[in-house]
Amino acid sequence: MELIDTHAHLAEIETVYDAIQRAVSLGVKQIVAVGMDLTSNRKTLALARSFPGVVLPAIGYHPWSIRENEIEPTLAQVDQYLGQGVALGEVGLDYKVKIKKPVQIGIFKRVLDLAAKQDKPVIVHARYSHERSHRMVAEAGIARAVFHWYSGPLDVLDRLLADGYHISATPALAYSPPHQAAIKRTPLDRILLETDSPVAYQGKISEPADLLATLHRVSDLKKIPAKEVAAVTNENAYGFFDVGKA
Questions:
Q1: 73 CA to centre of own chain
Q2: How confident is the model at residue 156 (pLDDT cuts 50, 70, 90)?
Q3: Residue 1 has pLDDT above 90, yes or no
Q4: Whole-model pTM above 0.90?
C-alpha cells in the first residue's frame, strides 16, 4: 500500500532526512510538510526542493507562532510563497494559548483571504474554537479545507461536513474518545490520514512512518479493510491538494 501523510512538521524533526527515507521505505510516498512561521516555512520549501514529488510544502502561520514584531513579515512571506505550496497551513485559532483572540482572528482572516484569492486548500488548526474556525473558513469562501485532528463538537462537525470540508485522522485515535467519535461519524471519503509528527503520542515521538498506525486505527474504528481505507484516503488527498501520485 502507498500512503500520503497529509500533515507533518518536517521542519521540527531533527533527523529529517532519515525520517523521510524510513517513511518512504514503508510505503509513505508523499508527505505534506506544514509551515508555522518564517523559519519553518523556509525549511519546508527547502525540503521540498531536496525531495521533489515526495515532500509537498504547505505555507502557514500557526497561532502558536504569533509574535507582534513578526506579523507583517510572516504575512508577506505567506503571500509571496503560497503559490509554491500545495496548501495554506497550518493556520487557525487556538483559544488555549495566550495570544489575544482578536489578534488571532485578524491574522486568520488575512491568511484565509490569501488562500481564497489563490484558490488554495486550507489546513485548519482549531482548539476550543471549532465553531468560529468553521464559520470563518466558510465566510471566506474557501472551497477546500481540512480540520486537522478534529476532536470538537459533533454538531459543528456535521456543519463543516455539510459544507464539503474534510477532517484528518491521527495516531491519537488510539486513546482520544472525542477524536474517535469524529472519525466514526465522518464518511471515509471526507477523511485524510496524518501523523502531525513529531508530536508525541502516549510518550512516543512520532514521525511520518507512523502513518501506518493511523491507517490501522481508522480501519479498526470504521470496520473497513486497511487497503480500502488507504485507497480512498489517497484519492481524497490527491483531490484535496490537487496533486498526482509520486
A1: 23
A2: very high
A3: no
A4: yes
Four-point Cα dihedral 169, 173, 174, 177, nearest 10: 170
Q: Which domain holds residue 143?
A: 3-241
CATH number for the domain spanning 134: value is 3.20.20.140
> What is the count of structural domains for the chain?
1
Q: Helix 211-222 to helix 226-241 angle, to the nearest 10 degrees?
A: 110
The answer to whether position 246 is within a domain reads no
Answer yes or no: is 106 within a domain: yes
Q: What is the identity of the amino acid at 111? A: V
Q: Alpha-carbon distance 63 to 67, whole Å?
A: 9
Q: Is residue 110 part of a domain?
A: yes
DSSP one-letter string for 68-119: GGGHHHHHHHHHHHGGGSSEEEEEEEETTSSS-HHHHHHHHHHHHHHHHHHT
Find cell 474557501 and name the residue.
142
Q: Which residues contact 94 (CB under 8 A, 6 or more apart)?
A: 63, 64, 104, 125, 126, 127, 128, 129
User: Is 37 part of a structural domain of the chain?
Assistant: yes
